[in-house]
Task: structure prediction
Amino acid sequence: MFTKFSHTGEVATQDELLFTTPFGYMFPDAAHSSSRLLPNSPETLPALKQLGDAMATDVVANPNDSGIPAVFTYFGQFIDHDLTARTDRDSTISTLGRGEPVNPRNPDEVTASLRNGRRPQLDLDSVFGDGPSLAAGSTTESDDLYDADLRLVVFNPAGRRDVPRDTANRSARIADSRNDENPNISALHCAFLLFYNKIYDAQVAGTPACKHVRARQLTRWAYQYVVVQDYLAKVCDLAVVIDTLANGPRFYGNSAGPGQTFMPLEFSTAAFRFGHTMIRPRYQLNGATPALDVMKILGPSQGLNNDPTQSNPDFFDDADPVKYQLKPSVTLDFNFFTGTSANVQFARKVDSNIAAGLGDLPLGTRRDDPILGHLAKSNLVRGYSLSVPSAQACCEAMGVKPMTLSEMADTMNGESAAVAQILTTTALGQRTPLWYYILREAGAQAGGEHLGELGSRIVCETIIGSLKSDPNSYLNANDLAVTPSGVDVGGKVIGTLTDLINHSGAGPVGP
Result:
């Protein structure tokens, strides 16, 4: 039913489960002002490429750990996939992989032509899709995600868990196949399938449709609570989280006055891509499997998002009776990703140093593309081409004092000499790419332990603003299941991601 798609697919296929909602600018006046964008000059693109190269140099010998458990890197990716899609696609408005000249697009053209494939709210459409059909005789594209009783289909024999896969090509049969780009996020997606089913099975009365409606509602509320109270509290400045919850967003959402809810490009192409710097060079999935280089677990040529002719024996076993599912030996043990186990791995610090392997992304036939094949370059150039305002312009709009050039280029406070030279010898030091600035700000202001002021503001404004604008979110719920300490999903209060994983049965994770 579902055709695989990824961040770099050239054309959206007709079988994808996608929605069509607006992108926009959180700071539209800045996007429409040439002096508040990166310079539209022949020097800008080479400078961005140089900056990307200089950022992606961190190697295995320098893991650069933060205090944030590694699971939150992939929970952030999961959240991103629930909120936004298509900014990484080549399209009529974004043509990085076609060898065409890269210049800033007219922002009105961007918002008119670039459409978000997700709803800009945390409603788990990446899990539930557009279904199931609840009226007799009707169908939706997502019906195959559910069994006859409206549980979500999941591969869950004793001691072995995986998302359901197609028997012919091992591709994941889930609503957003980006959640199968690596085994870390596919394990999280699997946990959400199990979590919903656990809540569904706890409903003792009602038809399957009634049980589905309540289980989906509680699943969404628990997820939203965890996003705000656990995830944002870890990756953002906690004072900004508390302020945005208490006083509302100032620049995004219905309370900020722009009218129709949209997905801000400042968030989707820059601020929320801070998670890229949290990716470790290596991961140990469980106690039975040696640590693997991160590039070994990414992309279609590595066995996931899968081309059966390139099956990775590290992940699939053709001698296995269920060879189309991940091998038992690579079932994720969440104790290696969160909790207090001695084995837990931590995300890398949020700063402007990116794991070197992310400069060589496994994109199949497009792997050698000089921009798309390099994560840092593609982020920088995509923001430039979509007329995302400079970091200084965003600071001005938010009333945040921007870092000076000397602060950004300070090699005594975490910046590399190569990056510092680019900032001081090009215009990027005065009109700085937002994505780079968000990372550098986190390193300089918070020691890489969480986002700084501007990054925290944009991320909190977008996520909390979307929840405040959604009448069905947990923040607007008048329901006894929503408590100050979490969401009661039937005798169990879910307040953290560890709670959610453990209740799903995808754990156990130690305290």
Notes: Strands lie at 21-24, 65-69, 115-116, 263-264, 282-283, 292-293, 346-348, 482-483, 486-488, 493-494. The chain has a mean pLDDT of 87. Residues 21-504 form a domain with the Myeloperoxidase, subunit C fold (CATH 1.10.640.10).
